[in-house]
């Protein structure tokens, strides 16, 4: 099993639920797995957004059939440590807050 960050989504609230220690600058290693607890997300194409606290650039990935995606290495490019922010959206109307993870 690959290394994964776990997120739970209820309505418009996202929460990180694992305790995996994220190490900065990992490439093609870390995945994000999302569990959707409420029905409004069902049957929709869902996109995850990742951003580091050291960049204004957001990276987006469409979730696969298992509600999983690779965490972009660009969001983990945090020399000296920092945070990544993760959120999801579907369509133009359903969004979440951002979950903050330490690197």
Q: What is the CATH topology descriptor? A: Immunoglobulin-like
- Give the helix level as a range of percent: under 10%
Percent of residues in beta strands: over 45%
Oligomeric description of these chains: single chain
Q: Distance N terminus to C terminus?
A: 21 Å
Cα Rg: 13 Å
> What's the pLDDT, averaged over the residues?
88
Uncertain regions spanning at least 5 consecutive residues? none
Query: Helix/strand/pairing class, anyone?
Result: mainly beta
Query: Would you identify the CATH architecture?
Result: Sandwich
CATH class: Mainly Beta
Largest beta sheet, briefly?
5 strands, antiparallel
Written as H for each helix and E for each strand, in order along the chain, the element string is EEEEEEEEE
What's this entry about, in short?
The chain is 0% helix and 46% strand. The protein is mostly beta strands and 103 residues long. It starts with a strand and ends with a strand.
Please describe the structure with a list of short key phrases separated by commas or semicolons.
Immunoglobulin-like, five-stranded antiparallel sheet, mainly beta, 103 residues
Write a structural description.
Strand 1 and strand 2 (13-16) form a beta hairpin. The protein has strands spanning 3-10, 13-16, 30-36, 46-52, 59-62, 68-70, 83-90, 94-95, 99-102. The radius of gyration is 13 Å and the shape is globular. The protein has one domain: Immunoglobulin-like (Sandwich), CATH 2.60.40. It is mainly β. The chain is built from no helices and nine strands. Strands 4, 5, 7, 8 and 9 form a five-stranded antiparallel beta sheet that branches. It has a four-stranded mixed beta sheet with strand order 2-1-3-6, with no helix packed on it. The mean pLDDT is 88.
